[in-house]
Every structure is written in structure tokens, then in C-alpha cells.
Amino acid sequence: MTVLGIDTSNYTTSLSLVSEDGFVHVRRILNVKKGECGLRQSDALFLHTQNLPALFSELFESYKERFGKKADVNAVAYSAYPRDTEGSYMPCFLAGQSAAAAVSSATGVPLFKFSHQAGHIMAALKTCCGEKEIGDEFLALHLSGGTTELVRAKANDDIGFSAEIVCETADISAGQLVDRAGVALGLGFPCGAELEKLAVSVGNAVGIKPIRVTVKNGECNLSGAENRIKELISHGEDAGKIAYFTLDFIARNVISLVDSAREKYPDLPIIFAGGVMRNKIIRAKITEKINNIYFASEELSSDNAVGTAYLGLEKLKRGQ
């Protein structure tokens, strides 16, 4: 059985084909003008619509090259909304919905919808090298451009995972802080990879006073660092040290969120997912302080349709 996955998040068009034998996937980052920190939803929707036809061709060619045969699609799965909660909605996911519905109607195969967050969690679960040990209940930290949430996840046959928020940011997300810091330093959006290179080039933030990290009622605050970053830039501080300061601040907040969650759920393993979790500096700092943790592969930490397709495959296998 093979499932086609489609995910049209705010900054990435993603397609995948998943079977028991493995997966292939393709994606394209949406273009953001230099100096800007994001896209309007209408622009994202338009760019997804432009990207999809070429990506479909690329995906099926990649499948044939890897598996030596044409893909026989048995179901289509797509990301319909950011997370599984009432009112969760972003127009950019309409592009994926339209494409998924068209393929399903043309081929007569089942159509499944999931949340973008559930797709991230599933991609992490499938690539963290600990799926069997983790079991059906665990904590999952989703750290991305739009989300900083630590959830209690439970396997759910209908939606993939139920996700109860345990801890979260009270203001901007970790990904927003990364991108705002990067754009302020003159980097291209999205800024994660370039900001990491800058930080690695220096390897410390010596001379920059760290911001105190606090978690109150399960919430942390990240926006204060943005003001400090702008102040440091205006004073001519080294760009590499500013980059390291930014990533260190995010890592310390993540550790504090986990510590807070483990007061309530001390024995549950933790999966880390989302584009920010590709960052090697953040990963290393977390690994030093926290045990019983699992990371999504770097390849599938960022937005992808692989997790969504795997959710569809599991549902198809259950005959739903």
C-alpha cells in the first residue's frame, strides 16, 4: 500500500509517497522577499498553487527512480489545519486540500485529513529510532516558525494523536525569534540555517549578559530577547555572538519547559519535532540536560508531508 501525502504549510510546499518499503519526498520553500519576516496567507496560497504541479512530477519521478516502478496510490492524506483544536485554521492549507481532493476524486482512493502538528509528531516518531520504546503516550515538543508547544500526545485512530498542551510560549514562537533575529542581522528568510552557521563560527556569547528564563503556569516568554538582539545590533556587537545568544536563549527555554512538564509527567519520554529542532546547538544543549528524549531526523524536522502520509498509511491499514 502506498499513500500520497500533501502538506502546504506557511513556508513550505511538501509532497511525499510512503509505503511499508520506505518513502520519497520533495518540497520547496516559499520565496520571501529580502528583509521581510514572512508571507501573507494570500501570497502563501498563491505560491503553493504555483509549486504543486512541478512537485507532483518530481515526486513520482523520484519514486520510480528509487523503487523501480510507478507509484500505485492507494490513499491520499493531507494537512488540513495547524493543530487538532476547534478554530485552528490557516488559508494556506487550502492549496493542499484542493490538490488532495482532486487526486482522490480522479483515482477513487480514500481521502484522509490530519493536522500539520500531527504530521510533525508522526514524522518524528518514525525517524527518531525509538518508536517501539516510546509507546502510545508521550510528550512531544513542537518547535517551529509558528508553534512552540509541549503537548501530551496519545495515539488516536481517527486524528493520529490527541495533543493536550502542557507547556507553551505566551508570546512569539521560537521560530519567529530565530527569523526576526536573522532578518535583523541581514540574513535571508527563513534564517535558521544561516543563523546556526553564524553561531558556530564564534561558538559562544561571551560578553553578552544572558536573559533570565522563567516558566510560569506552563508558559515561557520569548519576545524579550528580540528587543535585546536589536539593542546588541545597534551597539555593534559581533553577529556570531548575537546568533549564539539567540539559540542559547531558546535552548534554555526549552529545557525549562521540559522541566516544568516533567513535574507532572516524570516518566513519559519526549519527542522533539519542528524546524527549529534541526539546530545542532539547540539539540546539543538539550541533550546535555535532559534524558529519555528522542529527536526527529534532521531531514524531517522541518515541514514535510512524510508524517502526514504515514498517518494516512496507518489509517488505511486499519481499514478506515
Describe the structure.
This protein is an alpha/beta fold. The protein has ten helices and eleven strands. Strands 9-8-7-6-10-11 form a six-stranded mixed sheet. Strands 3-2-1-4-5 form a five-stranded mixed sheet, sandwiched between helices. The longest helix is centred in the N-terminal third of the chain and has 27 residues. The mean pLDDT is 96.
Q: H/E series, N to C? A: EEEHEHEHHEEEHHEHHEHEH
Question: How far do the termini sit from each other?
Answer: 14 Å
Strand order of the largest sheet: 9-8-7-6-10-11
Helix content: 40-55%
Note the main sheet: 6 strands, mixed
> What is the radius of gyration computed over CA atoms, rounded to a whole number of angstroms?
20 Å
The shape is: globular
Q: Beta-sheet strand percentage?
A: 15-25%
Q: Determine the mean pLDDT.
A: 96
Structural classification: alpha/beta
In DSSP terms (H or I, runs of 4 or more residues), the helix count works out at 10
Low-confidence region ranges: none
